[in-house]
């Protein structure tokens, strides 16, 4: 089987992969780069477990071929996780019982990461819309939505705190 060399950026680092023409990007990330946080469930675009961000957009990693990723910027769940501990989304999922077996969780995290990137304080409707393509077979969605709402609430509080602090700084400067 012929392999193709693909150069891309994954989680901020330039990498090179040797992929078979038929190999999905999710499979290549897992087998070539050891990034096994991206899960493969249905492998035909239904479950969302393989969701990654490619050039700023959420993508089903099982529906994109590795060879199509030439020159792309790819973000996986490893790239949004701190080297120690959990990201705010991951922490909220843990606190709000947003996972059981965890198989869907990397895809959920990536879908929510994209939502919070484009909409820092999303409404419940926006949260539901963002995860509408992610299937969870065991937890149910209530805990996942609660977790996302908690992150959105924290973002709102941080923003209003920043506004207050900046307002005080401005009034000091103008005084
Ligand atoms: S594994 Fe890609 S959508 Fe299910
Ligand atoms: S936590 Fe098991 S599939 Fe979602």
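Sequence proposed for the structure above (175 residues):
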């Amino acid at each position: 089987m012929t392999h193709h060399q693909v150069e891309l950026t994954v989680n901020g680092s330039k990498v090179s992969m040797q992929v078979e023409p038929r190999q999905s990007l999710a499979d290549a990330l897992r087998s070539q780069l050891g990034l096994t946080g991206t899960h493969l469930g249905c492998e035909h675009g239904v479950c969302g477990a393989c969701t990654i961000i490619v050039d700023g957009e959420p993508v089903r990693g099982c529906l994109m071929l590795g060879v199509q990723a030439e020159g792309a910027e790819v973000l996986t769940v490893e790239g949004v996780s701190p080297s120690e501990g959990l990201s705010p989304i991951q922490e909220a999922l843990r606190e709000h019982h947003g996972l059981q077996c965890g198989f869907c969780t990397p895809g959920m995290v990536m879908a929510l990461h994209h939502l919070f990137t484009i909409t820092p304080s999303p409404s419940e409707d926006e949260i539901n819309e963002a995860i509408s393509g992610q299937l969870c077979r065991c937890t149910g969605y209530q805990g996942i939505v609660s977790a996302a709402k908690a992150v959105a609430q924290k973002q709102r509080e941080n923003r209003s705190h920043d506004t207050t602090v900046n307002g005080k700084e401005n009034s000091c400067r103008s005084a």
